[in-house]
Design brief:
The protein is mostly beta strands and 568 residues long. The chain has one domain: 6 Propeller (Neuraminidase), CATH 2.120.10. Helices cover 4% and strands 40% of the residues. It has 5 helices and 32 strands. The protein has an 8-stranded mixed sheet with strand order 19-18-17-16-22-23-24-25, with no helix packed on it. Strands 1-15-14-13-12 form a 5-stranded antiparallel sheet. A 5-stranded antiparallel sheet has the order 2-11-10-9-8, with no helix packed on it. A hairpin with a 2-residue loop joins strand 5 and strand 6. It is globular.
Length: 568
């Protein structure tokens, strides 16, 4: 439910419609910026232990009545000197669905829906992750634990889940929900933010499973102050928190608001060893003045080299993917934390979708059959910033929504990137714009399997169809910059959203740790027109023989979904 509270969107200063950033100015009366170091050493946090069985929790309706209207978009830019070397290049969009035959889902079932919420919270923020035996999905503001065949084993609200945590996490959960599985420790992380009054203080509620069993293995509950400033009693609102698993910490980002104005982006690090052991949590944050919508990297598969920093990224319409490195060299002295950057990696030019060319404001522009248009979230990178280390070749994968032109921005498509050598000299190894027809595609999420095959999930809609959930993908040897495999529909929409222009704000593609080959995806849809949103969960492989040697038979004849490139 990110970017809530303010009904009027911030008017971008001149030049935004043309793809030029303008840094926001500090509001009158706002808290002063942090000292030059920008390092905020967090107070140690002692967890609360929970040892019950989650299947015994009641399925309570939320009492959260906060209006979920979009936060003003404020996309700043690096300084002109840093922007100058950038060179924009034209990138032809992919105008056809790939010729390869993408496999259909092996698992496909309904997830949680808005019936758990008495107040019909918009947007649902659907996301999920998969472990050895369970799939956990989170929505605003509920949690569902499923078997990997789709059986719902337990479901409950965040307030019910955190009921024994310290205030305000016990009663004041407000959304921006995230769930992560950490294959390194075989542990689960479930988070959202909480507060008691709108002026702060503000907290991140972090639940960490004590074992691999999320149902009866127990949890640690941490209530972490994430909105304090260096001025006592003054709090910045930490909106749109996003998290990623790393070798030494769980890293997080948020957009910091003083009133209705973006003051900075803030990057956080929560010590991973403390979290998984139930220890007193060491944590640190660093403000990035003039930045917006950073996304931390999320580890899947082989760990990065020893001591590697976590990587943060943000998209810059001036023509760059901006990267930062967050490092905590001494967890016993967190004031040593550093956030270096940005390194601005040139990318092909693009248009931000849903920008009114006259007013310069973001507007809802994704049409639905029989319904009003919804938000394309074109000013944000979509979760996750996925990290892969394949035989020493490090890469980051990420996507965002773009438009065919700057005039209003339609139809929308999905720009995606593979960045290699992020810790050395980062370069765009490949990039593509998936916009194969006149339908609108948005809310993408991208992941990569052990062999380097990628899957991209998204919503698709138009004035002639209800919003549906689909996915596509590419094999390792497909032509660079293309999603060479076909497009598969997880579920066709049966209706359109009525009553809100908020959609998303995100979806989630992740990878199964048991084989590092099976993708799991969740997103939003409607079975009938109205205000009861639903979610869907599906699992599939991009390449049936991922992790193994394909048959020696003529697979092109017997298995037409395998491209020639993949069989060579």
């Amino acid at each position: 439910m990110s970017k809530l509270k303010f009904g009027l969107w911030l008017v971008f200063l001149s030049g935004l419609a043309a793809g030029v950033f303008v840094a926001p100015s500090a509001p009158v009366g706002a808290a002063p910026p942090n000292p030059p170091s920008n390092v905020i050493v967090g107070k140690p946090v002692t967890p609360v232990s929970f040892d019950g069985d989650l299947r015994q929790l009641p399925r309570l309706a939320t009492t959260d009545t906060v209006p979920l209207l979009r936060r003003p978009a404020a996309v700043p830019t690096p300084s002109a000197s840093k922007r100058a070397p950038l060179t924009n290049t034209a990138l032809a969009r992919q105008t056809k669905i790939g010729a390869g035959r993408m496999p259909s889902p092996s698992v496909n079932f309904d997830g949680l829906d808005s019936m758990i919420n008495a107040s019909r919270l918009f947007p649902p923020d659907p996301n999920g992750d998969v472990g050895p035996n369970h799939y956990i999905q989170t929505v605003n503001v509920g949690i569902g634990i499923f078997s990997k065949t789709g059986t719902l084993l337990a479901s409950f609200t965040y307030n019910s889940f955190f009921a024994t945590a310290l205030a305000p996490c016990n009663t004041g959960n407000h959304g921006d929900v995230i769930v992560l599985y950490d294959a390194q420790s075989d542990r689960w992380f479930i988070t959202d933010f909480a507060w008691t009054i709108g002026t702060g203080p503000y907290f991140e509620c972090i639940a960490v499973s004590k074992t691999a069993d999320p149902l009866s293995g127990g949890w640690w509950f941490y209530t972490v102050d994430i909105g304090s400033t260096t001025t006592p009693g003054v709090y910045w609102f930490p909106d749109y928190p996003k998290l990623g698993v790393w070798w030494d910490a769980i890293y997080m980002s948020a957009n910091m608001f003083a009133g209705s104005t973006v003051v900075s982006a803030r990057a956080y690090a929560f010590n991973r060893a403390d979290l998984i052991s139930g220890g007193v949590l060491r944590n640190v944050a660093i403000d990035v003045l003039g930045a917006y919508a950073l996304l931390p990297s999320n580890l899947r598969g082989t760990a990065p080299p020893a001591g590697a920093p976590n990587y943060y990224a943000a998209v810059n319409p001036a023509g760059a993917l901006s990267l930062w490195e967050f490092s905590v060299p001494d967890w016993n002295n967190t004031s040593t934390a550093t956030l270096t950057g940005p390194t601005n990696v040139p990318i092909a030019s693009f248009a931000i979708p849903c920008v009114d060319p006259i007013l310069g404001v973001l507007a809802a522009c994704v049409p639905q059959l029989g319904g009003s248009s919804v938000d394309a979230l074109g000013d944000l990178l979509m979760m996750q910033l996925q990290y892969r280390n394949r035989s020493g070749v490090e890469s980051l994968w990420v996507n965002h929504t773009v438009a065919a032109s700057s005039d209003v921005g339609y139809p929308t498509g999905i720009r995606w990137y593979e960045v290699r050598d992020p810790g050395g000299t980062p370069t765009i190894y490949q990039q593509g714009t998936y916009q194969p027809d006149t339908n609108y595609r948005w809310t993408g999420s991208l992941a990569v399997d052990r062999d380097g095959n990628a899957a991209l999930g998204f919503n698709v809609s138009s004035a002639a169809m209800y919003p549906a959930i689909r996915y596509t993908g590419r094999l390792l040897n497909d032509p660079l910059g293309t999603m060479g495999q076909g497009e598969v529909e997880i579920i066709a929409g049966g209706g359109s959203q009525i009553g809100s222009n908020r959609w998303g704000d995100y979806s989630a593609m992740t990878i199964d740790p048991t084989d590092d080959c099976t993708f799991w995806y969740t997103g939003e849809y409607y079975s009938t027109s109205g205000n009861v949103w639903r979610t869907r969960v599906a699992a599939f492989k991009v390449y049936p023989w991922c992790g193994s040697t394909p048959p020696v038979v003529s697979e092109i004849y017997y298995f037409p979904w395998v491209s020639k490139a993949a069989s060579q």
